[in-house]
Each structure stands twice: as C-alpha cells, then as structure tokens.
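Wed. Picked up where I left off yesterday with Recombinase family protein. The coffee machine is broken again, so keeping this brief.
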Amino acid sequence: MLIGYVSVAPDEDPGPQIAALRAAGVDTADIHVDTVTALDRTAPRPALDRVRASAGAGTTVTVTALDRLAPGVQPLVALGAGLAAAGADLRVLDDGIDTTTVAGRAQLDLLARLDGLHRRTISTGTRAGLAAARARGRKGGRPAKLTPEQIAHAQQLYDEGEKSLDQIAKIFGVGRTTLYGHLDKSTVGKRPRARRTTPVSAPATTETRTDTNPPALQTVAAAAAIAPAALASPETTTPPTGETSPLVPTEDNRAARALAALQRGRRRENRWDEPAPCPSCGHDPGHRGGRLAQHQDLQISWLEPDPSDDNPGGMIVAHHCTECQPSQRFPITCADPHCDNGPILGGQLAIDAAAPGAQLPELVYWWLARRGWRDTAAGLVCSEHAERHGMTSAPARAAKVIGQD
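Structure written out below (tokens, as returned):
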C-alpha cells in the first residue's frame, strides 16, 4: 500500500506534488497534505501524524523530496528509523531513495552517518574555540547566580536537613531550578529527614466542680420542674421590655453573619487537598509537611530520553520527587535575573548538554519554543519575559551552543 505525503507553504499550490504522487501510483484518497510555514519548525503536522499512525508492514510512505518530509536532517533520520521499526518503507521521488531496495536503505543510512559527522565536526570546533578562549583568560556563558561561598553554604543547609529547598532558595534569592543545579548530585535525595519540632504543650489546668449533678442532668431536672402550662405560655418566648431577641435581625448581627460567611468561603478556597503520591515512583512522605514539599518538587518538568522502543530518539516529560530524581541533571533557566522558570534535563540528555561546547537537542529546543520560550541576545527567555528582552525574528532557530562566547 502506498501512502503519499505533501507539505506546502501557505501560499504554495499543492497540485504539482499531488500530481507527482498520483503518477507514482498513489491513490488520491491516500494522499495527506500539510500546510506549514517554512520558518516555524515546531508547527504541528497533523497529516504527517496520520501517516505515521497508518504506516505499518507492507506500506510505503511516498514523498516528492526529503525537505517535504521533515524540517531538518535529525528529525528526518528519526522519522526514517520510526518507519523502519514499524515495518514501513520510504520512497523519495526526486532524490531517488527507495528503502525497499538495498541501495535505498544504504542511502538513508549514509544520510544519518553524514548528519552525525556534521554534528561531531561542529562540536569539535566549538570545544577547540572554547579551549582557546579559556587559555586567553576568557570564560563564556552567563555569570553564575551564586558565588562559591554561597554554594557551599547552600549545600551545608541542604545536608543538615533542617530547611526545605524552597526555604534555602529564598535565603539566597534564587529559584529551585538554580539551586538544584548547584547542589552536589550525589547527595540530592539522600539527606536526612527534617526533624519535627516538639509542640509546646499548654499549661495544665485543674477544674473543680462545685455542683453535685452533671450539667446534663441538671438541665433535665430543671426542665422537669417547669410546668407544662408555662412551657406552652406565649409569655415565656417574649423577651423582657427593652431587650431585643437574638433571632430578630439587627445591623450588628447582620454584619457578623456576613463576615462569618466570608471567612467560611475563604477557608474553602484555601483548603489544602492532599496531593497524590509521586507519579514516577509512588513515594508518599506520610506526613503533611513532606507532601507539601513533594507537591512543589513535582511541579518541575524533567525532560528525559524516551525509554520505549517504538519512539527511538524521542523525549518524554516526567515529574520526580527527591527519591527518584535522576542523578544526571542539567537545568535550563530563564536569562531574566528575576526569573527561575525552566525544565531540567535528565539522563543522557543532561550528560550530552553538560559536555563542553554541547548543543541543546533539537527536541528540547522545540519543547521550549512550543511553550513560548525565545532565544534572545541575553539567552533563552521564558514566555513571561520574552517581550522584555526582545524576541529573535525566528521563533525556533537552530539550537544555541551552551557556553559559547
């Protein structure tokens, strides 16, 4: 079965591509068309998603050119690997690539190897440039938000276990992500539990009962002593002259009731719902303070390689508590000095990004761009501060080099 895919710009006519696919034997009903902007590499491609979902054993995805299938070489290689894993083949009319043949599979494999060579060449040149700059006494990248003395102090506070991460971050005026990046990776998640303070008990009071009967029994006895006629008499429900019954609304009790209703509403709004255990490992701290701290930890997004076999080269977004956080981490922070938004790379993504002269993976850059992040002259900026720093003309350009002068 042949499946055709067409990708055109908003002002481009898809007719020539459709005609070429029909001439190659693809039915019109099996041709899927996407309209995307050339500069927007992160634009959704619903037609391509349908093609990938329907591709399987015995199917051949047919396109007119490689640049119609993916916005770059790396996504193209990943897409080809995904099709091969699903048992589908790829045919590119203009470039003469057909993976149903040995030569076609060799061409696609050569393309992947050339892409790897190109990236290694860029990385080698970048590392050489950084080494030369360091030899001249220059240090690239943004200035650190914490001094070595502050980092040592923060590590000491964390190891003591007396303060939470939020409290330590507030002491030094940084965010949780920045603090995570400066802590010793071997100690994160292994510190002792914070000790609970012993509550101060109220002074003991001694009550002396002077009556002989319990209050409930006295009430019953007093009620029994009242004549039924007196209970039924209307005079017993009439307040004395000059007094107002508390059941009659007045300005004072109206205001008191309104204030009480307002306070009840605020208590309902501020009511704390116990959070669920960690979605990654199922850890439950077992007490309210620990659950609150874990709830704050789970708000951080961890970008990690997809461990599944059906998405090679993919990425997942995970949420971890301190018990299951990856030991390899690379925080991505906003360039605005008053902001600390940003995800944390974990696993192999963190190892690759932390290498000297390394680049952010394209999938990470796409994830940031989809959430409004922009690459400015000051560095990566979140959506809340992009306008303040001035956005670049292309919302999703090539991945920036970390630490490049």
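Quick read: The domain at 2-114 is CATH 3.40.50.1390 (Rossmann fold).
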